[in-house]
UniProtKB/TrEMBL annotation:
Lyase as UniProt keyword: yes
Protein name listed in UniProt: Putative pterin-4-alpha-carbinolamine dehydratase
Domain of life: Bacteria
EC number: 4.2.1.96
Keywords in alphabetical order: Lyase
Molecular function as annotated in GO: 4-alpha-hydroxytetrahydrobiopterin dehydratase activity
SUPFAM superfamilies hit by this protein: PCD-like
Catalytic activity: (4aS,6R)-4a-hydroxy-L-erythro-5,6,7,8-tetrahydrobiopterin = (6R)-L-erythro-6,7-dihydrobiopterin + H2O
Length: 125
């Protein structure tokens, strides 16, 4: 249940250590307009669009580091109340983001993608 003082999403975005530009489509799905998604992906070069998802592969230095990356992503995903699909194969992580209840990509997917990029970089991946 959301607390007073704004939505959980708005509070999570405000707490990020970097600015998030507003979505040209508001809070709804971005997936209907390919150009909007492609322009957002310019700031996230490790990510690619596949249908209604954006995906990235992360290569960690070793298996324990891969698990630490997943743990750090889990903490931030809980804060944002938005959870990626994660496939772990030794030191390779495959991540996918979409907003199922909105029927496609939303600003929240791109926000979490940027957070994941920062986490991966912090762990040398």
């Amino acid at each position: 249940m959301p607390e007073s003082g704004g939505s959980l999403h708005a509070r999570a975005l405000a707490a990020l250590p970097f600015p998030i530009p507003p979505s040209p489509e508001g809070d709804g799905p971005l997936g209907k307009n390919l150009m909007d998604v492609e322009s957002r992906l310019k700031d996230l070069p490790a990510w690619r669009r596949e249908g209604d998802e954006i995906r990235r592969t992360v290569e960690a230095p070793d298996f324990p580091t891969a698990i630490r990356i997943v743990d750090a992503i889990a903490v931030k995903a809980e804060e944002l109340d938005h959870h990626p699909d994660i496939d772990i194969r030794w030191r390779t992580l495959r991540l996918a983001l979409t907003t199922h209840d909105q029927g496609g990509l939303t600003e929240l997917d791109f926000t979490l993608a940027a957070v994941i990029d920062a986490i991966a970089a912090e762990h040398g991946a």
